[in-house]
# Entry
Amino acid sequence: MTAMLIVLGIFIIVIFAGIAIYNKLIRLRNTVRSSWSDIDVQLKKRYDLVPNLVESVKGYAAHEKSVFEKVTEARSAAMQAVTPAEKAKAENMLRDTLKSLFAVAEAYPELKANANFMQLQSQLKELEDNIEYARRYYNAVVRDFNILIESFPSNLVASSFNFKQEEFFELEAPEVERKPVKVSF
# Structure
């Protein structure tokens, strides 16, 4: 009788542990989805701001048509990307084209002094900071979720209920990020 009670107690503990692990997996999966949504919100704000930047620069640099087309194409590609890997690739392309847009703006001192352009540039910087924060939070949640999926005994529950690892949102390939910053005077 005592042995049966011990086995029953162990069985109940295992069931409750499984339920707790399952609930934690669900909570983390929903947090991953929520944090990805936060990134999407910040990126949408950036996508909405880009046409205003392009229009501001267009008035001063009408002959720089190819730059404007590249920015518009990069924005469209970024808006259509779905997965974190696709978004990362598209965001790299958009960021690079925005750099070329600002390089064009550098050639026009009257544009750089324009209050509207300065405000748009400031908003873009703030958005970039927000995107970076959202990306870090998302990646931290994904890391925790993936660790839980791979760790014992939660990996048993995760595989039983078909939980899959999530992708990190990495804007640059590691080999690009590790290159030293080039400074010239």
Summary: The longest helix spans residues 2-60. Residues 17-170 form a domain with the de novo design (two linked rop proteins) fold (CATH 1.20.1440.20). DSSP finds seven helices and no strands in the chain.
